[in-house]
Specification:
Number of helices: 1
Radius of gyration: 42 Å
Helix content: over 70%
Oligomer: single chain
Strand content: under 5%
Largest sheet: none
Order of helices and strands: H
Number of strands: 0
């Protein structure tokens, strides 16, 4: 009978030890999963930041090119207007004078 009680106590001790090991393993797994989750999140955020920066640079270059084209187009137009004004100034002044006084 005493052997049987010792066996039951030993089995209970082993069961408690296995339960404790399982709980520790569960806690360690949860911590490892959380750590892995945070690592993946940080990696994805870092990649996203790099992509955003690359996109910003590409968009800025495209905007700069567009701006340069617009500036060139308006510069050519302004130059043409200046040339027309220089070529027709006296004629336009005379016409305005005649229309106003005339």
């Amino acid at each position: 009978m005493e052997d049987m009680i010792k066996r039951i106590v030993e089995m209970d001790r082993q069961a408690r030890q296995m339960t404790e090991q399982a709980q520790n393993a569960k806690l360690n797994s949860a911590a490892a999963i959380e750590k892995k989750k945070q690592k993946l999140r940080d990696e994805y955020l870092a990649q996203a930041r790099v992509l955003v920066e690359q996109n910003n640079e590409a968009e800025q270059k495209a905007a700069d090119l567009d701006w340069e084209r617009i500036q060139q187009r308006y510069s050519r137009r302004a130059q043409k207007l200046d040339e027309q004004f220089a070529a027709n100034r006296e004629q336009w002044v005379t016409q305005l004078f005649n229309r106003t006084i005339g």
